[in-house]
Amino acid sequence: MGRVITLELASVTPLLNRTIRLHWSRRRKKRLALAWEVKVAAMGNIPAVPFARARVSVIRRSVGTPDHDGFVGGLKDLLDVLQPHHEKRRPYGLGLIANDNPGCLVLEPVAKRVGARVYQGTTVIIEEL
Hints:
alpha+beta
């Protein structure tokens, strides 16, 4: 087992239906805000070289239980932020993982229901394989 990076995000990952209905400029602003939140949560633990193979566990804590496809589809912006910077495709990429294709990434989404909004948030655990 390799290195492990754990990120605690105060926001909940958006669901796919909410994401696809956003105007492109609002979605861009939300993606930038997510990139900053991930960067702050990483606290300087961003590796010099992205993990070539990684397991990414995303634990979404919310008052409602999302459907599986809406939850996984809503993770696109988060996975784009975790990948390396690319001028056009991923301008907000931080370079924690090399790619999100099945050869490089094992994604483990977990949805947990909490009793109150004050307990909502997202935990991202990135393990090098």
